[in-house]
Fold:
Amino acid sequence: MENDKVMIHVRFATNGTVAEIGERPASLSAQDWFNLLSSSTTDNYESLSGGRAIFRIPRQQVDQLKSSAV
Structure:
């Protein structure tokens, strides 16, 4: 299905940098992948408690962003 959304989980370090993030291409650091997702998407980010967050992004868009990062 083309409307399938991917949930990309983010965990932040105590200093606010990204410690872990899902679906990350090997060519990017965790922080760079977060920055790319943040700048390339709108209304897809949800902050959670405990230094966590998620992006809900359509699979097709995630694949496009991954290929552009390579």
Remarks:
- The chain is about 30% helix and 35% strand.
